[in-house]
Design goal:
- The protein is mainly β.
- Helices cover 12% and strands 49% of the residues.
- It folds into two domains: 87 residues, Beta Barrel (Thrombin, subunit H), CATH 2.40.10; 107 residues, Thrombin, subunit H, CATH 2.40.10.
- A six-stranded antiparallel β-barrel has the order 1-2-3-6-5-4. A six-stranded antiparallel barrel has the order 7-8-9-12-11-10.
- A hairpin with a 7-residue loop joins β4 and β5.
- The longest helix has 24 residues.
Length: 208
């Protein structure tokens, strides 16, 4: 199959057929029944021709999609894939979700599209994905509240969130929040953080 050109420049994750993470990158070229995924940092492993892999494409407004494909060429900076097939209902957005324990702070929206620095409150981040996060806080929040969260990733980034639901997390109150739209730079930093955390978890699991 041929991917829609709407997928061009989307973040994606490359996986083994068992679901282990190989690398992350962006779709840099789409042609008939082929796609090229690039990583500017040159952090991709070189894969053998005809290796079967999966790749997950992150969508901003829709469910993520998972495909299976054959490697046609591979370097440290990119991998080209062919014979692409969509895997329906096999893997969901959790492929880009990781459990964390991160103490940080949030700010309420000031009503003018910015944050209110005078009303910062403490939160603990318990999971993180490209779509949103679960936070634990004593602050009383309401559905559809707009807040800003400081995330200490490879560099500190501030993301705008919308509160979607209130939940009970163990003995605490938690809030499921979705990110408002963010740019490529923040997306790259967030994706790399999630990728590294998942890789650490896999290494830890294999050592048990």
């Amino acid at each position: 199959m041929t991917l829609s050109q709407q997928n061009l420049y989307k973040i994606c994750k490359i996986l083994t057929t068992d679901g282990n993470i190989i690398a992350t990158g962006r779709i840099s070229k789409i042609e008939e029944n082929s796609v090229k995924i690039s990583n500017k940092a040159g952090e991709m492993p070189v894969l053998d021709t005809n290796t079967i892999i999966k790749f997950l494409v992150h969508k901003d407004e829709e469910d993520d999609e998972v495909f299976v494909a054959l490697v046609s060429s591979s370097t440290e900076h990119s991998v080209s894939l062919e014979n692409i097939e969509l895997l329906t209902n096999v893997e969901k957005r959790e492929c880009f979700r990781v459990s964390v324990s991160m103490s940080t702070k949030c700010y309420p929206d000031n009503g003018s599209g910015g944050l209110d620095e005078s009303k910062a409150f403490k939160v603990k981040v318990r999971d993180l994905s490209l779509r949103g996060t679960l936070i634990i806080t004593s602050e009383d929040l309401e559905e559809n509240d707009k807040i800003y969260i400081v995330l200490p990733l490879s560099k500190t980034e501030i993301f705008k969130l919308t509160v979607k639901r209130k939940i009970t997390y163990l003995d605490s109150v938690g809030y499921g929040c979705e990110f408002d739209k963010y740019g490529y730079t923040q997306e790259d930093v967030l994706c790399q953080f999630i990728f590294e955390e998942q890789r650490k978890l896999i290494s830890k699991t294999k050592s048990l």
